[in-house]
Amino acid sequence: MRSQFSLSAADYSVLAELTRVPDGRLRVLELARELGWEKSRLSHHLARMTRRGLVDREVCASDRRGVYVRVTPAGHEAIATAAPRHVEDVRSLFLDHLTPGQIALLAEITEELIENLTRVPDSH
To answer: Where in the numbering of this chain does the HTH marR-type domain appear (predicted)?
Structure first.
């Protein structure tokens, strides 16, 4: 990714999350939660991505303390260019080596793990 598209794995993850939402923007804390990153790590990374023109920030109109991160046209172009190669790499490095049954099992396990991670913990 880095050598061919000038995107780190972290850049790709941020852009992938932002381009999954309809308006291409998320609040910083929501993006940190989606990525599983500490807020400080995300803030430093977003500063680097902002300098490169991949994302920008905007103040939340309804909550002046809140900040949105928004993918820029350059960020959209970067992920649109890199995504087909990313999919090709995942397929050739992982999925092509599994049987259909193994892929189904992997999907089942992944769904269970994601469900467990997103489940609200019991408050006792």
So the answer is: 1-115
Helix (H) or strand (E) holding 71: strand 67-71
Radius of gyration (Cα) for the chain, nearest Å?
A: 17
Dist CA 107 CA 16 (whole Å): 20
**Domain annotation for the chain: domains and CATH numbers:** 2-118 (1.10.10.10)
Q: What residues are paired with 55 via a beta bridge?
A: 71
Q: How far apart are the first and last CA of the chain?
A: 45
d(CA 35, CA 61): 24
Would you call 94 exposed, middle or buried from its count of C-beta atoms within 10 A (0-12, 13-18, 19+)? exposed
pTM of the model: 0.77
**Residue 25 confidence (pLDDT) above 80:** yes
Strand partners, 35: none
Query: Nearest 10 degrees: CA dihedral of 96, 98, 102, 105?
Result: -50
**Rounded distance, CA 34 to CA 17, Å?**
8
